[in-house]
Amino acid sequence: MSADVHPNAHPVLIVGAGPTGLAAAMSLARARIPVRLIDKSPQPSPFSRAIGIQARTLELLEQHRIVEPFLELGHRARAANLYSNGHRLARLDFDPLQTRYPYLLFLDQSVTERLLAEHLATLGVTVERGVELTGMTPGASRVEAVLSHADGRSEIAHAAYLIGADGAHSTVRHLLSVGFAGKTFEQTFLLADLQAVSDCSDDEFHIFASGEGLVGLFPLGGGRHRLIADNPPSLAAVVAGTTAEANAAATHQAIASPAAAPSLDECRQIAARRVHGRLDLDTLAWSSYFHVNSRMAERLRAQRVFLAGDSAHVHSPAGAQGMNTGIQEAFNLGWKLARLMSGGAPDQLLDTYQAERLPIERDVLRQTSFMMQMAEAEHGPLKLLRDRVMPVLATLGPLRDAARLTVSELSVQYRRSALSLERVLDGGPRAGERAPDALVHVVDGPLGRAPGIGRIFDLHDPGFFSLFLLVAAEQDGDTPFDAPARAAPALDAELARLAQDLERALPGAVRIWHVSETPRDGAPSLSESYGRTRPAFYLVRPDGYICARGRPASDGNALLRHCEMWFGRTREHG
Length: 574
Known about the structure:
Helix content is 32%, strand content 28%. The strands form five sheets. Strands 5, 6, 13, 14, 15, 16, 17, 18 and 21 form a nine-stranded mixed beta sheet that branches. Strands 8-2-1-12-20-19 form a six-stranded mixed beta sheet. 50% of the residues are buried.
């Protein structure tokens, strides 16, 4: 989408090289948009911090062609368990999820950042470390940023746009004077990475609630586990002098006292009191105390400056949502910036970043706060809900399905977005929903792609829009589906005209695939994933969500008008 970017165009400046900043840089660089990525830390953090990668994030990493090393190094947990005073109240298994990744992948955040940075280097972008943003002036045509280097040098840098992905204490957010509304929870939490041996399954994670407090045990592979516990009793003296004001800016806010690091003995004592059953702990690798906040930025855009990740929202680690939400925000914003800078799309396209993501952030804060409060409840309605009502609700299939989709983030959707053009078809995902994977017969494709068998996720390139034109299969049962001579009749004239018109409307921005059904096993079929209407079109956004769908004869003109209004060239941009 960047063929028209001027060679001397200012880059997008990304502040913060955590998972969100790295993902934003990757999304832009893949579209060949110039990027500059800075981080004030001289070295990447060696600590694990966020550890859970959800199914939807893995799907997006697959589409960026980088998921394999994550799968090789991560540890898969296929179910979640909640216990109360030794009794298992609920078990949520992820196997029924319609995805190649029916699990939660546990991987140290430090490894996640390393893998993203290594891939980013192949795209020509390296992290500039020891470089801190100290001031900025957003303007009508660019952002002027003041950067301080580790050697004491000061620099005035100009950027086309600036993305603040610099964490809970975001300098970008403070410089914009954007409010960070929410609350600080009174509880203090213990976090530790250590070796653990228990009677619990190593491919599931476990949350224990008791009158003593809460314990979470999350497998990292090779006997390593993440242990989380609330209200560690030995910390009372340490936290007595802390204030809500001191902790209001962050989640996972480590207490600054050098003596305030949990010991292995403390972890063992907490586990002995709160976990009913065997849990032997050993070899403490790292530990900390932290506070939990539930806060979100009042807005995500100020002229040419954007907030993403922890700079935009912080919340309980319940459900492993934070890092995944930030990465998906980065992909949402990245393609929109790329489209505007390369294709001259209108500025209003960038407003849809806030319109689409703020409601999702609000839902994540609400859900994670409720999950934590319910798990910690010692009395009252929430304890009753957890101990009496939840076991009954957990037996109801539709509720389990909804919980799986929510935790895995496969349920994230933009159906109400102005970018979603919906027309009724016979089944299939609606506009604004995630584009699911499917096994298809490729009748015709871009770049001289020969007919054959493929998967939607392999065909979609997140540097482009993908227009999937669904045609009726024409071969009989005696003809193999990879025979090009019999595939040509399946091309529908209306679809062909629509493809030509869309290529003229969005030159160089869309890749067009004619696909049909294939009887082969190995993945959901085209009809299972995209319904039975033929001919039909599905336009997939670069971030893997359905932008529009419909029938070419009746809805083709509406698709063209929609794309010209939101993604077409309207004027030159600085």
